[in-house]
Amino acid sequence: MPLLGQAALAMWWDIAPDARSAFEDWHSHEHFTERLGIPGFRRASRWSSATGGEGIFVLYELEGYGILSSPHYLASLNSPTPWSTRMMPHHRNMVRSQCHVLESRGAGVARHALTVRLSPAPGRGDALRDFCRSLIGSLVTRPGLTGAHLLRHQSPPIAATTEQKLRNGADQTADWVFVACGYEAAALTALAQADLAADALAAQGAAPGAVSGLYLVSASATPVDVA
Which CATH architecture has domain 7-226? Predict the structure, then answer.
C-alpha cells in the first residue's frame, strides 16, 4: 500500500561502527516504541547503507503534517529519555526533512530502498513534479520494484528542540525527497543510474547537487507492533 498518511519525517545520518550496535538496540527497543506511541505516527522504518557505509535512513509516516508540531511530539522532542540523551550525540551529519507527501504509489517498505534528495531549479518546480509523478506511476509495475514516493519539505513553526541541540552540529534539510522501494537491488541501481541520474534530473527541472543513496531495511513497525 502507499505511505500511511499525508506527511512524513525523512532523516539521514551517519553512525560510527563502534556505536552501531548500541544505536540499533536503542532505536529498535526504545525509540521506535516512543515515537509510535505519539498520536498520528503510523509507521516507522529504519534502513542501513547498502554499500557498507555508516549511513542510516529513517522514515516516519504520519497521519498529517500537523503532527510535526503537535504537543505530544514536541513534548517527546524536548524531554528525551536518559538513553536518548546518551545516543543523540552519535547522530552525525544529520539531514532531517519534515515533509508533505506529494505522491505515493505502491509499497512503502521492501527489502531495498533508493532515496534521492533533490531540489527544483528556479522556475522548474511544476515541471519536476510532473516528471516525478509520471515516473512514479510507471515504477510500481517495473520488475524488481514495488513502490515510489515523492515528499516535499516544509519547516514547521517550532523552535529548536532539546534533541536537536544534543546532536553534533545543526540539522540540514532535503528540499524534495524521492523514495523508491523494491525487492531487487539491481533494479534500484539501474533507476539511480538512468531515470534519476544527475543529468536526467537536470533535464527534467532539478537543480544540481542531488544526493542518492541505496539502503537495506533493518526494522519496520506500526503502533500495533510495539503496543
Answer: 2-Layer Sandwich (3.30)
